[in-house]
Specification:
The complex is a heterodimer of chains A (209) and B (473). Chain A is 22% helix and 26% strand. The chains are: A alpha+beta (209), B alpha+beta (473).
Chain lengths: 209, 473
């Protein structure tokens, strides 16, 4: 009996060692540094009225229209250009994944009034979310308009005007290319003010002639 | 040949089955270990206490060894930046997927652009690309194995480094030894200190006018040298070895180790590399029955209302590119024959029409436009895998891949980036095609293929296409 107890004891210690070794493999190697986090003083927490609460947001996605200030926006990474527009507002341009499509934030009276940012298409990247993730939070769009001058005839803009959100989407693949945030308004006013890229007259090109 | 191709295509399935069998075997091993542990509990009542301790420790060591083995294997797999395309294994004939030896050690070519230049230069002279690649690996292993597509030398098509020096017999054009000629040798006469420049280590003494720093020019020069002995794309051992003997300045009839202090036989290694990287042309097997159904069964592509000839052309093209990821990316497409001589992509998968296409009269143009429209399907329906952002950046960096893509908005009311993507795919998969998707007012009628010519006019686009589809041809 004493020997059996001793064996069980040895077995338990062995299992503990084994579990310890297992966790040892899970710990990252000392040579790898964690990604440098950007400290953004305000606003926190992220805007859960727009984004899925489980989504890991990029710094730009933490912008809140009407609240985020110039001083915060100037700390966002990859700032390329800051310019004052004729109406006195300030436009910030940030490098995105696309050379030809910088992220933009416009401030008016010292706080954010408009933002348009490119979203990643790769699930592993920060800020990636499927169209269904947005629909789950925002509900159905007030208007869907097919056709984008930049993205092509088959890309649609989902307008949630009263929520201050518009999504440029590839509805075939259920992906979102861009998100625009603005002060809540009407669909017509959104299209007039920020809808320069929307072009419902586009159609599949006829090729081969 | 057909059966071999089919075997290659099914290799993925066989691998998965083997993985399953391995898992079952591991489970059986674990059960045996558990039984061993159970037995150990009985043993302790009749044996000394050190026996079960030894058994438990042994079991732990075995498990740790298994974990270590699994971990290290995974790390190796993750380190591969470019997954091999379907069927792109050694022996497929694609030099990007072959290894080339130097001193008995196998290496891969790191830059896909460089691999493309080698292939194009060799194909123009109808010599095997693998022979030229092996020569380049022997002449400048460091460049081939470490310089990638983003290195300035590749981007600028210019590499002068790694100058080698040898003492050369100026009469026979053979190397006497590595390093400069001695004073005594020079006084005896008939020798000169020669300097070898660039990727192909071209002799400055004998070929001072060749621009050895220009990579594509030096490849063309080397190809022409080899072509003196290698008469076609399927050379004999004697032809390959004679070509290398002449190229390397070795003494004919003697091993290619004779003078340069090489610890290996240059000629033997090139011949082995060529054999290990044999080209396997993918030729579509004949269809005895319903071609439409065969395309559905083989590629999960439904072609509605096409005549027998055009079904056959589609079958051939899909087979030809089946070693790339193209066929898996467009699987599930429905292609509808169009009565007017115009075509377009109109949808994705799930039974809706993906593409409408006219049954164009020539095989080349029908296959070209089919892959163009299916290129749209990849971009629109699988954007995460399509690298559409990379393709748009390629457009912004080096311009549109075609006149049509640069003018699609005015020419067809389309959007330039989207047409650029589809043209990139179709040029990549139709190397011999110099065609235009749509003729606009000022369109060139027979433009060069920008992804397969010499020089490659749009190397960044080619790199994106390769990332999306894998190596081709």
């Amino acid at each position: 009996m004493k020997k059996k107890l001793l064996f069980i004891g040895v077995l338990i210690i062995s299992v503990i060692i084994l579990i310890g070794l297992f966790f040892l493999f899970l710990i990252p190697k000392s040579g790898t540094k964690p990604a440098k986090e950007i400290v953004i003083p305000t606003p926190t927490p992220p805007n859960t009225k727009i984004y899925n609460p489980n989504l890991k947001l990029s710094p730009l996605q933490k912008t809140i229209i009407g609240k985020t200030t110039d001083s915060v926006i100037e700390q966002f990474p990859n700032l390329q250009k800051k310019e004052v527009l004729p109406d006195g507002s300030t436009k910030y341009s940030f490098a995105s994944q696309l050379i030809s499509r910088p992220n933009e934030v416009v401030t008016h009276g010292g706080v954010a009034s408009f933002e348009k940012i490119l979203l990643p298409l790769e699930p592993e990247k920060e800020g990636y979310a499927k169209l269904s993730d947005y629909i789950n939070v925002l509900g159905q769009p007030e208007k869907t308009i097919k056709g984008s001058n930049y993205w092509g005839w088959n890309v649609s803009t989902y307008v949630f005007a009263s929520r201050g959100v518009a999504l440029t989407t590839n509805s075939y693949a259920g992906l979102v290319y861009e998100i625009s945030l603005f002060k809540p308004t009407t669909v017509e006013n959104y299209i007039q003010t920020h809808g320069q890229d929307i072009n419902p007259r586009l159609s599949p090109p006829n090729e081969g002639q | 040949m057909d059966q071999r191709d089919q075997r290659q295509r099914r290799r993925g399935a066989v691998d998965r089955i083997n993985t399953g069998i391995d898992a079952i075997r591991k489970t059986q091993t674990a059960i045996k270990m558990a039984r061993t542990a159970g037995t150990a509990a009985e043993v302790i009542s009749t044996s000394e206490i050190w026996i079960p301790i030894v058994i438990v420790v042994a079991v732990i060591l075995i498990i740790v060894a298994i974990i270590l083995g699994t971990t290290s294997g995974g790390a190796i797999d993750l380190g591969s930046a470019n997954p091999a395309p379907g069927g792109g294994s050694p022996g497929s004939g694609n030099i990007s997927s072959c290894q080339f030896t130097r001193a008995g050690q196998g290496y891969s070519i790191k830059s896909s652009i460089l691999a493309g230049w080698i292939t194009d230069a060799a194909n123009r002279a109808s010599i095997p690309p693998s022979v030229l690649a092996s020569v380049a690996m022997h002449e400048n292993q460091n460049f081939l194995t470490t310089y990638d597509n983003n290195s300035p030398e590749i981007i600028n098509n210019n590499f002068c480094g790694s100058e080698g020096v040898s003492c050369t017999n100026t009469t026979t054009n053979t190397n006497i030894h590595v390093g400069a000629c001695t004073l005594e040798e020079i006084q005896r006469g008939g020798v000169a200190t020669d300097r070898h420049r660039g990727l192909l280590q071209i002799s400055n003494y004998f070929y001072p006018t060749v621009n050895a720093c220009n990579i594509t020019e030096s490849l063309t020069w080397a190809t022409n040298k080899l072509k003196d002995y290698i008469l076609n794309s399927t050379p004999t051992e004697a032809q390959v070895k004679a070509a290398i003997t002449a190229y390397g300045g070795f003494t004919p009839g003697q091993p290619c180790t004779s003078h340069a202090g090489y610890p290996y036989d240059y000629c033997d290694e090139v011949w082995q590399d060529y054999q290990n990287c044999q080209t396997t042309n993918i030729i579509a097997p004949p269809i005895s029955g319903d071609k439409r159904q065969a395309i559905i069964d083989e590629f999960n592509v439904t072609m509605n209302e096409f005549d027998d000839q055009h079904l056959g052309w589609a079958w051939e093209k899909l087979w030809e590119v089946s070693n790339t990821r193209f066929t898996s990316l467009i699987a599930g497409s429905t292609i509808q024959s169009q009565t007017g001589n115009i075509s377009s992509q109109v949808g994705c998968f799930g039974g809706q029409t993906s593409v409408k296409i006219f049954q164009f009269a020539t095989r080349e143009f029908f296959q070209y436009l089919l892959t163009h429209e299916l290129g749209h399907v990849i971009a629109s329906c699988r954007p995460s895998e399509a690298r559409v952002y990379d393709a748009r950046n390629a457009f912004d960096r080096e311009g549109a891949v075609s006149y049509y893509a640069a003018n699609a908005l005015h020419c067809a009311g389309s959007e330039n980036y989207s047409e650029d993507y589809a043209d990139m795919i179709t040029y990549y998969l139709n190397p011999s095609a110099g065609l235009s998707t749509k003729i606009c007012d000022d369109s060139p009628r027979n433009p060069p293929n920008p992804l397969h010519g010499n020089p490659i006019l749009k190397p960044i686009h080619k790199n994106v296409a390769e990332e999306v589809l894998g190596n081709f041809p």
